[in-house]
Amino acid sequence: MVGLFRMALAVLAIVALGLQASVAYAHSSEVFDPAGDLATAAPAYSDIVHAKVTEQVGRDRLYFMIEVAERIPDTPTKADGTPQFLAWNWAVDAPVGGAFDYTVIVRYCSHTIQGPCIGDAWHWESELIGPTGRQVNAFPFAVDGATVKASVGLAQLGAANLAQLDWFTVSRIAPGVSGAPPVDFAPNSGVVSLLR
Ligand SMILES: [Ca+2]
Ligand SMILES: [Ca+2]
User: Fold this and answer.
1) Which of 7, 81, 83, 137 is least surrounded, with the fewest CB atoms within 10 Å of its CB?
2) Model pTM?
């Protein structure tokens, strides 16, 4: 009898732990992606290995993170010495309509090769594209070692009252307007869901 009671307690403890874990992860979502799965020859620092979106409870913001296979240079440069365009995108969707409504972008760019990029000198900037338009440097970001980070307000994503957001990430070594496809996707297909 005592043995059964102990077993029941143990089962209860496991169930309780499981509940705690599900609560702790309710506001975080992530995907791990293989290294070495670039679609074309591209720098290892464009190779996504881990992406994560976390709700910063109490701050009404989402923290976006992409980790790549190699440290990202401060001034990315091609083998021929010219600047290397780079962009990481989080495509974000509220699963109520058909399309992905928002794109959160961190990039190394120049207006000389990408129209929306502000300034001819090569530099890092962020951009938020939404249903009503696009805005450069609409949110803070950082490129830190092998990690790209961004912090975007829930209201900026029209998501303050949504129970779920779906997302996926891509990396680019040429602007989308060039017609070149992304060099990496994470996840490789489908989406990651952030349950709030
Ligand atoms: Ca990858
Ligand atoms: Ca991939």
Assistant:
1) 81
2) 0.84
